[in-house]
Design a protein that fits this description.
- The chain has one domain (3-128).
- Helices cover 71% and strands 6% of the residues.
- The protein has helices at 3-24, 39-59, 61-67, 69-74, 79-95, 107-128; strands at 28-31, 101-104.
- Strands 1-2 form a two-stranded antiparallel ribbon.
- The longest helix is centred in the first third of the chain and has 22 residues, at 3-24.
- The chain is globular and about 45 Å long.
- The relative contact order is 0.21.
Length: 133
Amino acid sequence: MCGMGAFLIKVAVNAVAIWLATLVVPGIGVSAQEGETGAIENILTFLVIGLIFGLVNAVIKPVVRLLSLPFYVLTLGLFAFLVNAFMLQITEWISQATPLTFYIDEFFWDAILAAIVITFVSLILNLILPDGD
C-alpha cells in the first residue's frame, strides 16, 4: 500500500481508538462546534483529533522516548503509558486552538487510563488492518 494509504489507515485507527477511549474513560471527551451534532460531523471530529494525535506521535514522541530511555528500561516499558498520556495532553493542548475540543479532566488518571485504552485498541487494529509492512 502506498505511503498515503498507510497514513490514512493510521489516522483512522487513532480516531477509532480515541473514540473508544471516550466511551470507556469518563474523564475524556471530544466535542465539535456548537450546532454540529450529526454523525458526519462526529466522524470528522474524531478523524481530525486522530490526525492531531498521529502528528504528535510522529513528531514529538520519538524525541521524548529517546530522552526518557532510562525510565523505559527502569520500569520495563511501563513508562510508555506515561509518555502516551503526555502525548494525549499535548493533543488536548493543540486541539484547543481548533474549533474542536478534546478534553481530559484529570491529567494523571484519566490520561493514563485513556492511554492504556488507546494503546491496546491501536495494537489490535494495527494487527488486523494492513498498513503496507
